[in-house]
Structure of ABC transporter ATP-binding protein:
Amino acid sequence: MDLTIEGLTVEASTKTLVRDVGLAAHDGEVVGLVGPNGSGKSTILKCTYRALRPTAGRILLGDADLRGMTMKQSALRLAALSQQSSVEFGFTVDEVVATGRLPHTGLLGRDAADARQVIAGALHTAGAEHLSGRSFLELSGGERQRVLIARALAQQPQVLILDEPTNHLDVKHQIDVLRRVRELGITVVTALHDLNLAAMFCDRIYVLDEGAIVASGTPRQVVTPPLVRAVFGVAAHVVEHPETGAPQLLYSPDTAYDDTACDDAFPGAVPTVEETTPA
Ligand SMILES: Nc1ncnc2c1ncn2[C@@H]1O[C@H](COP(=O)(O)OP(=O)(O)OP(=O)(O)O)[C@@H](O)[C@H]1O
């Protein structure tokens, strides 16, 4: 299912948090949202899962405008892992993941799917099956994150919104979770701080700066030294991943480093392209 964001603007009191944002994630695509702290990534994602009401613009799931859908209708199509996801009570891991089934069942309804199988599959995809039966509150930060990802997957969404899914995860689980989510074949929009992970796992990347999209395109088009310097203020080399060909950044410890030298030093570096406009 396609997710389309058109002309999204969010204002809070006197401040414009995001302005005129356009973003399209096509059916089955994994789309990354990157940008510095405070650039508006979470704000955009919150609008997609209806934790925030935009001031202007619209969000479409397929052809349907979110504003015309009930919460249940949108939750049957779209699931989210937010940065603030938390569980206050002493639920077991399985109970937490089972709450992902609520849009399908309602509070007292019956689940048409085999819920136990769905929950087991979600725990597996999130790399959390060994945590089944444990109390959620006794888990480590990374273990909790994997259970919360499983809860979103148990919703069996066609569109998955992930706000920093790799938070708290060790490197193996960062790669595992993104790879397995990608293998689901559903539409994913994910905010990521790690540009190398974004380049490795995303089909396309949108770059946000101060509430506006400043570039978008494939990882090769977007992950370039000039862009990383302009948006993040960091000098970097780009090399091709020897196995996948994905651009990977090697950061310079000196942010004043001359990045024109980077390209000379790395002949395989990805060429710079003009900023592209959002689809
Ligand atoms: N309710 C609000 N009122 C005023 N300002 C807000 C509100 N919510 C968010 N902001 C501000 O909007 C900006 C964008 O915040 P947002 O959380 O979307 O950024 P982000 O790109 O997700 O950041 P990070 O990478 O740090 O998670 C920030 O400057 C934040 O302080």
Observations:
- DSSP finds eleven helices and twelve strands in the chain.
